[in-house]
Protein backbone atom coordinates (compact mmCIF):
# COMPACT_ATOMS: atom_id res chain seq x y z
CA UNK A 1 0.00 0.00 0.00
CA UNK A 2 1.00 3.58 -0.57
CA UNK A 3 2.27 5.12 2.65
CA UNK A 4 2.61 8.83 3.34
CA UNK A 5 4.69 9.78 6.34
CA UNK A 6 4.61 13.40 7.39
CA UNK A 7 7.23 15.06 9.57
CA UNK A 8 7.04 18.57 11.00
CA UNK A 9 10.34 20.35 11.59
CA UNK A 10 10.74 23.30 13.87
CA UNK A 11 12.78 26.28 12.74
CA UNK A 12 15.11 25.79 15.70
CA UNK A 13 15.99 22.21 14.69
CA UNK A 14 19.66 21.76 14.04
CA UNK A 15 20.92 20.39 10.78
CA UNK A 16 22.11 17.25 12.56
CA UNK A 17 18.67 16.69 14.12
CA UNK A 18 16.97 17.03 10.76
CA UNK A 19 19.37 14.55 9.18
CA UNK A 20 18.70 12.10 12.00
CA UNK A 21 14.91 12.31 11.55
CA UNK A 22 15.28 12.03 7.79
CA UNK A 23 17.33 8.83 8.19
CA UNK A 24 14.71 7.36 10.52
CA UNK A 25 11.91 8.08 8.08
CA UNK A 26 13.91 6.61 5.22
CA UNK A 27 14.54 3.40 7.17
CA UNK A 28 10.83 3.07 8.00
CA UNK A 29 9.86 3.41 4.34
CA UNK A 30 12.47 0.86 3.24
CA UNK A 31 11.25 -1.58 5.89
CA UNK A 32 7.67 -1.27 4.74
CA UNK A 33 8.69 -1.75 1.11
CA UNK A 34 10.75 -4.84 1.92
CA UNK A 35 7.92 -6.35 3.97
CA UNK A 36 5.45 -5.83 1.14
CA UNK A 37 7.86 -7.26 -1.41
CA UNK A 38 8.65 -10.36 0.64
CA UNK A 39 4.97 -11.10 1.20
CA UNK A 40 4.29 -10.69 -2.50
CA UNK A 41 7.06 -13.13 -3.38
CA UNK A 42 5.90 -15.61 -0.79
CA UNK A 43 2.39 -15.55 -2.17
CA UNK A 44 3.69 -16.03 -5.71
CA UNK A 45 5.98 -18.97 -4.88
CA UNK A 46 3.76 -20.97 -2.59
CA UNK A 47 0.52 -20.26 -4.48
CA UNK A 48 -1.43 -19.77 -1.26
CA UNK A 49 -5.10 -19.01 -1.82
CA UNK A 50 -5.99 -15.75 -0.09
CA UNK A 51 -9.34 -15.35 1.60
CA UNK A 52 -11.32 -12.16 2.08
CA UNK A 53 -9.94 -11.85 5.59
CA UNK A 54 -6.41 -11.74 4.12
CA UNK A 55 -7.18 -8.87 1.76
CA UNK A 56 -6.67 -6.22 4.44
CA UNK A 57 -3.44 -4.27 4.67
CA UNK A 58 -0.72 -6.07 6.61
CA UNK A 59 0.76 -3.13 8.49
CA UNK A 60 2.17 -3.66 11.94
CA UNK A 61 2.37 0.04 12.78
CA UNK A 62 -1.03 1.10 14.17
CA UNK A 63 -0.18 4.71 13.40
CA UNK A 64 -0.79 4.00 9.73
CA UNK A 65 -4.41 2.88 10.34
CA UNK A 66 -6.10 5.27 12.79
CA UNK A 67 -9.46 4.05 14.05
CA UNK A 68 -11.13 7.36 13.31
CA UNK A 69 -10.38 6.84 9.61
CA UNK A 70 -12.06 3.43 9.43
CA UNK A 71 -15.61 3.69 8.05
CA UNK A 72 -17.80 0.72 8.80
CA UNK A 73 -20.39 -0.03 6.15
CA UNK A 74 -23.54 -2.14 6.06
CA UNK A 75 -26.35 -3.10 3.72
CA UNK A 76 -30.08 -3.38 4.39
CA UNK A 77 -31.11 -6.91 3.44
CA UNK A 78 -34.69 -7.13 4.71
CA UNK A 79 -37.44 -4.95 6.20
CA UNK A 80 -38.92 -6.75 9.19
CA UNK A 81 -41.72 -4.32 9.94
CA UNK A 82 -42.90 -1.00 8.53
CA UNK A 83 -43.10 1.18 11.61
CA UNK A 84 -43.99 4.46 9.93
CA UNK A 85 -47.63 5.06 9.03
CA UNK A 86 -46.61 6.33 5.54
CA UNK A 87 -48.81 9.37 6.26
CA UNK A 88 -47.40 12.88 6.41
CA UNK A 89 -48.59 16.45 6.87
CA UNK A 90 -47.46 19.07 4.40
CA UNK A 91 -48.19 21.44 1.55
CA UNK A 92 -48.85 21.03 -2.17
CA UNK A 93 -47.44 23.12 -4.98
CA UNK A 94 -47.14 23.01 -8.74
CA UNK A 95 -44.09 21.45 -10.36
CA UNK A 96 -41.38 23.82 -11.51
CA UNK A 97 -41.19 22.52 -15.09
CA UNK A 98 -44.48 23.64 -16.65
CA UNK A 99 -43.58 22.14 -20.04
CA UNK A 100 -43.16 18.57 -18.81
CA UNK A 101 -45.75 15.84 -19.12
CA UNK A 102 -45.52 15.27 -15.38
CA UNK A 103 -46.75 18.84 -14.77
CA UNK A 104 -50.08 17.94 -16.38
CA UNK A 105 -50.59 14.91 -14.16
CA UNK A 106 -48.96 15.51 -10.78
CA UNK A 107 -48.29 18.07 -8.10
CA UNK A 108 -45.50 18.14 -5.54
CA UNK A 109 -46.25 17.41 -1.89
CA UNK A 110 -43.67 18.81 0.56
CA UNK A 111 -43.90 17.27 4.06
CA UNK A 112 -43.43 19.41 7.13
CA UNK A 113 -41.21 16.67 8.58
CA UNK A 114 -38.05 16.81 6.49
CA UNK A 115 -37.26 13.18 7.30
CA UNK A 116 -40.11 12.21 4.96
CA UNK A 117 -39.36 12.45 1.22
CA UNK A 118 -41.22 14.73 -1.13
CA UNK A 119 -44.06 13.02 -2.94
CA UNK A 120 -45.70 13.18 -6.36
CA UNK A 121 -49.48 13.32 -5.92
CA UNK A 122 -52.07 13.17 -8.75
CA UNK A 123 -53.71 16.45 -9.69
CA UNK A 124 -57.02 14.60 -9.49
CA UNK A 125 -56.56 14.42 -5.71
CA UNK A 126 -55.96 18.17 -5.44
CA UNK A 127 -58.71 20.80 -5.18
CA UNK A 128 -60.45 21.60 -8.48
CA UNK A 129 -59.05 25.14 -8.72
CA UNK A 130 -55.56 24.30 -7.49
CA UNK A 131 -53.94 24.62 -10.93
CA UNK A 132 -55.48 28.04 -11.62
CA UNK A 133 -55.08 29.41 -8.07
CA UNK A 134 -52.17 27.59 -6.39
CA UNK A 135 -51.44 30.59 -4.16
CA UNK A 136 -54.77 30.07 -2.39
CA UNK A 137 -53.46 26.75 -1.02
CA UNK A 138 -49.95 27.87 -0.13
CA UNK A 139 -50.68 27.75 3.62
CA UNK A 140 -53.20 24.90 3.54
CA UNK A 141 -52.20 21.70 5.32
CA UNK A 142 -52.90 18.36 3.64
CA UNK A 143 -52.50 14.73 4.64
CA UNK A 144 -50.68 12.58 2.10
CA UNK A 145 -50.05 8.84 2.28
CA UNK A 146 -47.06 7.34 0.47
CA UNK A 147 -47.99 4.33 -1.66
CA UNK A 148 -44.81 3.64 -3.63
CA UNK A 149 -41.22 4.76 -4.14
CA UNK A 150 -39.47 3.47 -7.24
CA UNK A 151 -35.75 2.86 -7.13
CA UNK A 152 -35.05 5.10 -10.13
CA UNK A 153 -37.03 8.08 -8.81
CA UNK A 154 -35.92 10.84 -6.45
CA UNK A 155 -39.45 11.31 -5.17
CA UNK A 156 -42.05 8.93 -3.77
CA UNK A 157 -45.58 8.50 -5.12
CA UNK A 158 -48.63 9.07 -2.96
CA UNK A 159 -52.24 10.11 -2.62
CA UNK A 160 -53.79 13.11 -0.91
CA UNK A 161 -56.15 11.91 1.82
CA UNK A 162 -57.77 15.11 3.05
CA UNK A 163 -57.36 18.82 3.66
CA UNK A 164 -56.75 19.70 7.30
CA UNK A 165 -57.04 23.47 7.24
CA UNK A 166 -54.79 26.47 7.66
CA UNK A 167 -51.29 25.89 8.97
CA UNK A 168 -50.62 27.29 12.44
CA UNK A 169 -54.07 26.53 13.85
CA UNK A 170 -54.30 24.10 16.75
CA UNK A 171 -56.89 21.65 15.40
CA UNK A 172 -55.32 21.03 11.95
CA UNK A 173 -51.84 20.74 13.42
CA UNK A 174 -53.00 18.31 16.12
CA UNK A 175 -54.94 16.16 13.66
CA UNK A 176 -51.92 16.01 11.39
CA UNK A 177 -49.61 14.82 14.19
CA UNK A 178 -52.08 12.15 15.33
CA UNK A 179 -52.53 10.90 11.76
CA UNK A 180 -48.78 10.70 11.15
CA UNK A 181 -48.28 8.51 14.22
CA UNK A 182 -51.27 6.31 13.44
CA UNK A 183 -53.34 7.36 16.49
CA UNK A 184 -57.06 6.66 16.17
CA UNK A 185 -58.77 9.85 17.34
CA UNK A 186 -62.26 9.07 16.07
CA UNK A 187 -65.27 9.18 18.40
CA UNK A 188 -65.88 6.22 20.68
CA UNK A 189 -68.52 3.78 19.47
CA UNK A 190 -71.78 3.26 21.46
CA UNK A 191 -70.49 -0.17 22.54
CA UNK A 192 -67.48 1.43 24.19
CA UNK A 193 -69.54 4.15 25.86
CA UNK A 194 -71.86 1.52 27.35
CA UNK A 195 -68.92 0.12 29.33
CA UNK A 196 -68.66 3.37 31.29
CA UNK A 197 -70.62 3.89 34.53
CA UNK A 198 -74.13 5.07 33.74
CA UNK A 199 -75.11 6.32 37.19
CA UNK A 200 -73.45 9.69 37.61
CA UNK A 201 -71.74 11.08 39.58
CA UNK A 202 -69.61 7.95 39.91
CA UNK A 203 -67.21 7.43 42.83
CA UNK A 204 -64.56 4.81 43.55
CA UNK A 205 -65.75 2.27 46.09
CA UNK A 206 -63.80 1.84 49.35
CA UNK A 207 -63.03 -1.75 48.38
CA UNK A 208 -61.30 -0.65 45.18
CA UNK A 209 -59.37 2.07 47.01
CA UNK A 210 -58.10 -0.47 49.53
CA UNK A 211 -56.48 -2.74 46.90
CA UNK A 212 -55.24 -0.07 44.47
CA UNK A 213 -52.37 2.38 44.55
CA UNK A 214 -53.68 5.92 44.41
CA UNK A 215 -51.84 7.89 41.70
CA UNK A 216 -54.22 10.86 41.61
Automatic annotation (TrEMBL):
One cellular-component annotation, GO: P-body
Subcellular location: Cytoplasm
Residue intervals of the CSD2 domain: 107-182
Record keyword Acetylation present: no
Keyword Oxidoreductase among record annotations: no
GO molecular function, a single term: metal ion binding
Swiss-Prot/TrEMBL keywords: Cytoplasm, Exonuclease, Hydrolase, Magnesium, Metal-binding, Nuclease, RNA-binding
Single GO BP term: mRNA catabolic process
InterPro entries with a match to the protein in the record: Dis3_CSD2, NA-bd_OB-fold, RNR_Ribonuclease
This protein's name: DI3L2 exonuclease
Source species of the chain: Toxostoma redivivum (California thrasher)
Organism placement in taxonomy: Eukaryota, Metazoa, Chordata, Craniata, Vertebrata
Amino acid sequence: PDVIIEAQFDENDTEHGQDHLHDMLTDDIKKLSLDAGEKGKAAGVTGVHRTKQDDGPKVNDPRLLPDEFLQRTAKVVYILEKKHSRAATGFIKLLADRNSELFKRCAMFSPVDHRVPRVYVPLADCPADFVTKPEAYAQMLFICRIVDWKEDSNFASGQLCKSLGQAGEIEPESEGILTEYGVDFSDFSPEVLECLPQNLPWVISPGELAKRRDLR
